[in-house]
Write a structure and sequence with these properties.
Blueprint: H1 16-32, H2 36-42, E1 47-56, E2 62-73, E3 79-85, H3 91-107, E4 114-119, H4 128-142, E5 151-155, H5 161-173, H6 200-218, E6 227-231, H7 235-246, E7 250-255, E8 260-262, H8 269-277, E9 290-292, E10 304-307, H9 316-319, E11 326-328, H10 337-345, E12 349-351, H11 353-356, H12 359-372, H13 379-403, H14 408-427
Parallel strand pairs: 3-4, 3-5, 6-7, 6-10, 10-11, 11-12
Antiparallel strand pairs: 1-2, 2-4, 7-8, 8-9
Helix pairs in contact: 1-3, 1-14, 3-14, 4-5, 6-7, 6-12, 6-13, 12-13, 13-14
The structure holds glutamic acid.
Residues 80-82, 104, 154, 156, 188, 332, 357, 360-361, 364 line the site of glutamic acid.
Length: 431
């Protein structure tokens, strides 16, 4: 199993992401003039589950793992969001990531709420069969806290289609034979052939590229010969780079968990992708590139910067050094509120995560529908549907930003929160 190796990119500040999402939410709530009672509901998470579960390792010993699932809000539909395997996961970071999912699904107009989860561990330390047992045991421990019409996990950092196949199989195995197949959509991001959607692998990165394309079109900027840098060369970073390169743009810097490389003349995306397969998933020592210090990465000369790794990467410390004119947030929460102020003051625009990386969850929605209706969709129609959906959302955000004279993130939050507020107002609070 190939794992996205993003483990040493940063020391994640413990409370950072939760503070960040709450600050963003509070700013947006003021902007929308959000009903104070609904604000009280949205600033907390509905359910928080922490599970300790034992797994037998290859050497016969038992190890105890800590797994999380946080369900933030389900006013618009079942909880939806990924599972990540990472040593820095803790309850606050999962809460933050679950909240971002609520805003993301609402903004995209999907019939979903927001959730997130994962296991606190370094997956690189375990064999494939250990990872399978860890995943299956975690799924079993989650029990009915997940479900195809209740809470639907998906891949995230260090999890992939294989992880989802194990989850689906475990969950379905706990059902009676006649109930099994109607539970296939308990997870999305499954392998094709096991209910997975054609193109779900590239959906997030393709979406990142599309939002950059829409943004550039609106600014009348030609992407040909524009330079870009990517932090994280996993699923999101690779596919975003792949499509940008097809458009004629040039990748001049890449950073992963193990190092940072540059080449002003361009690093060919496909060659780097082939190289990492032979280099334990790492970009380090790629021929025809120079290594640079990790802390110099965001100050590289480029037009577009794509953080596609973990949260809290662009901070007060490095925001004033950013040279790009556009930041496209492939990751969740890569820019702190303080950094965003500096960037906006400097005239640097940001395509916010809840818009920029929403291609992934939109693809998940297509997969969920496909499973639910017993259909099989073709790649071409999926990519067209994804482009149309993202274009509609992008236009709405842009329009709100222009008419209300606010930045793109505030505009995206405005739309997302207003939709949830409306649902609460229509339905009232039980009892
Ligand atoms: N993990 C992805 C995200 O952060 C996808 C979530 C999903 O498809 O449910 O948006």
């Amino acid at each position: 199993m190939t794992l996205i190796k993003e483990l040493k990119i940063k020391k994640q500040p413990k409370q950072g992401m939760l503070e960040n999402v709450l600050k963003q939410f509070n700013t947006a709530a003021d902007l929308v003039n959000l009903n104070p009672n609904i604000k009280k509901i949205l600033e907390v998470t509905n359910n928080e589950l922490i599970i300790h579960f034992p797994v037998r390792m290859d050497n016969g010993n038992v190890e105890i793992f800590k797994g999380y699932r946080v369900q933030h809000n389900n006013a618009l539909g079942p909880y939806k969001g990924g599972l990540r395997y990472h040593p820095t996961i803790d309850i606050d970071s999962v809460k933050a990531l679950a909240m971002w999912m609520t805003w993301k699904t609402s903004l995209a107009g999907l019939p979903y709420g927001g959730a997130k989860g994962g296991i606190q561990m370094d997956p690189n330390k375990y064999s494939t069969s250990e990872l399978e047992r860890i995943t299956r045991r975690f799924t079993y421990a989650l029990g009915e806290n997940i479900g195809p019409e209740h809470d639907i996990p998906a891949p995230d950092v260090n999890t992939n289609a294989q992880t989802m196949a194990w989850i689906a199989d475990t969950y379905m195995s706990t059902k009676s034979p006649s109930e099994r197949s109607k539970n296939q959509h308990v997870v999305t991001g499954k392998p094709i052939g096991s209910g997975g959607l054609e193109g779900r692998d590239r959906a997030t990165g393709y979406g990142v590229y599309l939002t950059i394309k829409f943004w550039a079109k609106n600014k009348k900027i030609d992407l040909k010969d524009k330079t870009f840098i990517v932090q994280g060369f996993g699923n999101v970073g690779y596919w975003a780079a792949h499509f940008l390169e097809l458009e004629g743009a040039k990748m001049v810097g890449v950073q992963d968990a193990f190092g940072s490389i540059i080449n002003k003349d361009g690093i060919p995306v496909e060659l780097l992708y082939e190289y990492i397969k032979t280099n334990n998933g790492s970009i380090v020592d790629y021929p025809n590139s120079n290594a640079i210090l990790k802390e110099d990465f965001f100050s590289l000369d480029c037009d577009i910067c794509i953080p596609a790794a973990l949260g809290n990467q662009i901070t007060e410390e490095n925001a004033h050094k950013v040279k790009a004119f556009l930041i496209a947030e492939g990751a969740n929460g890569p820019t702190t509120v303080e950094a965003e102020k500096i960037l906006l003051d400097r005239g640097i625009e940001i395509i916010p995560d809840i818009l920029c990386n929403s291609g992934g969850v939109i693809g998940s929605y297509f997969e969920w529908l496909q499973n639910r209706n017993g259909e099989l969709w073709e790649l071409e129609e999926i990519l067209i549907k994804l482009e149309k959906k993202l274009n509609d959302v992008f236009k709405k955000v842009l329009q709100a930003s222009v008419t209300k004279r606010i930045d793109l993130r505030s505009a995206a939050y405005f739309i997302a929160i207003e939709r949830i507020e409306k649902a609460y107002i229509q339905r009232g609070i039980f009892p």
